[in-house]
Amino acid sequence: MPKITVTIAILFFCSFSVFSQKINLSGVLTDGSEKTPVNNSVVALLTPIDSVLYKFTRSDKEGNFNLKNVKAGNYILMTAHSQYADYVDAITVKENEKNMGTIALISKIKLLKEVIIKSGSIRIKGDTTSYRAGDFKVSANANVEELLKKLPGIQVDKNGTIKAMGETVEKVLVDGEEFFGDDPGMAVKNLRADAVKEVQVFDKKSDQAEFTGIDDGNTKKTINLKLKEDKKKGYFGKIDAANGPLTNIDSRYNSNLMFSDFKGKRKLSAFLLNGNIGQDGLGWQDSEKFGGRDNDINMSMDDDGNVNYEWTDGNIDEEPYVDTQNGFIKNTNAGLQYSNKWNDKQALNLSPKFNKQIYTNNNSRLTQAQVGETQLNENRSTVSNVNRSNFKLNATYDVKLDSVNSLKFTAKTNFYNTDSDEFTNGITTGDKGLLKNKQEKTFTTNSDKESLSASILFKHKFAKARRTFSVNSSWNTLSTNSNNLLKSSNESYDGGVFSSRDDVDQNKIGEKTNQNLALNLSYTEPIGKKFALQFAYQVTHNTGDSNYLTYGYSDVTGKYDLVVHSLSNQFKQTITTNKPIIKLSYNAKKINYSFGSGFGFTSFDLLDQTLNNQYKRSYTNFFPTANLSYKYKSNSNLRFNYQGATQQPTIDQLQPLRNNQDFFNQTLGNPDLKQSFTNSVSISQNSFSILTESQFYQGIYFRTTTNLISYNKDIDPESAKTISKPINTNGNFSGTFYFGYGFKVKKIDLRINLNPSINYNKSILSINSKINNSNTLNSGFTVYLNKSKEKKYDFSLSNNFSNSRSSTSQNDVIKSFNTNNLNLDIGVYFREKWKLSTDYNLNARQKTADFQTNLTNQLWNTRLQRTFKNDEFTAYILVRDILNQNIGVNRNIYENIISEERNDRLKRYAMIGFTWNFKNKGEIAKK
């Protein structure tokens, strides 16, 4: 029947054309690659309004076609052939004769090779998954973080941590460049969603791997935000100010200012955040970058010559723990970002930032430690007051000297200053409630820290493809100056009866400097079309100086001028490593792999200047490495990675110095420590189904460490006094499995994500020089549902269940508890300009034999807003913690310890605010 209808239509139009102006439409069809004629291809004319067939013909052996008696007007010209992709073009016929000339058709075989797999809003090419931002509807003036929450396979938790395909995102780029340094939170929180054209997710390889083409297994999950062309010209920004409506109480306030001015490849942005509601406006790495966990900084270098800064607890110049999720904080953050490119040869990226925090918190902590058949219960409360500031500067200059040579200069600075005071009150009891000890302590801190780093990377490409040479040289230094006062009263009890008291009144002055020099030479040589060899040589030289002096208070002079020799020490360290490396790589369309090894020759030279003791030793290590990537489908891949690496002990762990800041929990360094060696294996798989819009990913990670640097704890069960000393242990390993499945129920337009995970850790703990095994198992399951309709509603529901389970070989007791978090977010639009948002969070924590308190609490927040003038202005009122149940509670199980910690939290408050989202109207009008 359809064929008859088409035939009748063709006859009708042909008869009608007799009475019209006769126009001939001709042309020739050719193969776009071979330039040969394409014969027997359908060539049709369609009416543009309803796409109804008007005329058609077929091309002859020479590829020629001729449509006769065509009426003047507008048409759609379309070709159809079994071996070639359809060609579609809008044309106008108005002359007596119209020749379309040569039309080049694309072979379907070639098209399939080059096609970017695409389905509506998502496309996958190679390892990159791209989302068309405009297809995911967000509220007016939303930032990129809100956009990311809409994208399948990407999750953003309440702390701002971004995960893509189950992995934590470590970098967020804007048009391929860093935005405010390497902080992933700055771009997603401060860029407008409507400025983004495309969101790309991929595993970014190291600079060395991208240059040589040899995968070294060092990748970072990265998001690149591609901006719309019109957003790269002109300016846009946001001013947001809110304040509590009540003046007779401690009022809440918050202000955000962000401005960006883009002109082609030149980008200039600035931000200023100020408030007292706990918002820092930065990313999930704020604690590391702005002193949130700035107890101490250790600097170490991995086997690829990369320097890592690690913030750790319990070191000599221990500072208070600042957690912006807890306590009360007044903070100011400001930053500037400038990037530009000139002539595609020079690029500059500059990002200075400033942060200041004034922080107060009340912390209470209950810790239960199993020591053989004895259980020690420590109940401690701490009041903290912290005033700290930080200035940071990142700068990168990249220059292409010519077509084969390039230089990259990188410089980073970090300056910290902290003033704080802590007051701690604590008691320790036995399992029968008998008092073991009691402590009152005041600790004040004044410290300055400075970290500087610089690197130069030279790259050269030879005339022969894949033959390369590079030199990477870096210098890093970290220095700390601290001046601390410790006053404490410490009482010991025997059988619950007072036995002794030790009072401490000391001034502690510390100076530490750690420097690292590294040189990395690399040469790659192709040995065929797909194979290549890499030869490299690395030299690292690490030096450290730690001078720590403790002075007791003198009643005679009224000063701290009595040197406490048992708590003072001057120490030097020098660690040098030479490592030649050889690798073989294979690169093909679907399979890429590399394997090889380095041979490390490491020497330790340690000098205890106080006691005039010298410690020298050397090590020879074998560093195998292997990587495999298999793209078994265009939108699916499998990855395998194995790496062996050493970890050197820090100067704090090596220096034979006693730290008595906590009288009943002291630490002592160990200059006899050996380096540890870790074997790591990871396997991951990721696939995406275009037709069902479903994503499936999973990963397994296994790690085992020999000579792991852990601690031996000498615990006196009577006084509960503990002396911890770092030692090397064997038999430690951990394993992690994660799984993710996301899909869309198209009938109801509902997105669903399922994410189970499990982690197992076996660690060796030494208590009173007796080795014990500790087994910890953490498992969880998350369900996430999301549905939205533009200008109607947004809905998301998630539930996360987790279980923590721990046991030790000391006894048969298993410590276990469950937690469950239910979160509901709803946004409803009405009358287009109004929106009511509310979120509800139910936290349930299981009662246990150790913790009998019911810790179930509910958090309910709401916000009502109205937009004006095409969504340029927004007025809003919000209420946080309507039920006044916000509590800061954390439970943790590890080794022989189970703990519950509580902190102050900001409870119920209300704010009235106004937002102005501005953009360059002149550029929009021009568009």
Q: Which sheet architecture does the biggest sheet show?
A: 26 strands, antiparallel, barrel
Q: Given the helix and strand composition, which structural class is it?
A: mainly beta
Q: Report Rg.
A: 33 Å
Distance between the termini: 48 Å
Total count of helical runs of at least 4 residues: 8
Proportion of residues in helical segments: under 10%
Mean pLDDT: 82
- Approximate strand percentage: over 45%
Gross geometry = globular
Which runs of at least 5 residues are low in confidence (pLDDT < 50)? 1-20, 113-119, 280-317, 922-927
The total strand number stands at 52
List the topology elements:
Layout: H1 2-17, E1 24-31, E2 42-46, E3 53-58, E4 64-67, E5 73-81, E6 84-93, E7 97-105, H2 108-114, E8 117-119, E9 122-125, E10 128-132, H3 144-148, E11 154-156, E12 162-164, E13 167-168, E14 171-174, E15 177-178, H4 184-190, E16 196-205, H5 207-212, E17 219-227, E18 233-243, E19 253-263, E20 266-275, H6 286-289, E21 297-301, E22 307-311, E23 328-342, E24 346-371, E25 374-400, E26 405-429, E27 435-461, E28 468-494, E29 497-526, E30 531-553, E31 560-563, E32 569-587, E33 591-608, E34 613-633, E35 636-647, H7 651-654, E36 658-659, E37 665-668, E38 676-689, E39 694-706, E40 708-715, E41 722-729, E42 732-745, E43 750-767, E44 770-789, E45 793-808, E46 814-830, E47 834-845, E48 857-868, E49 873-880, E50 888-894, E51 897-903, E52 909-919, H8 921-926
Parallel strand pairs: 1-7, 14-17, 37-41, 40-43
Antiparallel strand pairs: 1-4, 2-3, 2-5, 5-6, 8-9, 9-10, 10-16, 11-12, 12-13, 14-15, 16-17, 18-19, 18-52, 19-20, 20-23, 21-22, 23-24, 24-25, 24-51, 25-26, 26-27, 27-28, 28-29, 29-30, 30-31, 30-32, 32-33, 33-34, 34-35, 35-38, 36-37, 38-39, 39-42, 40-41, 42-43, 43-44, 44-45, 45-46, 46-47, 47-48, ...
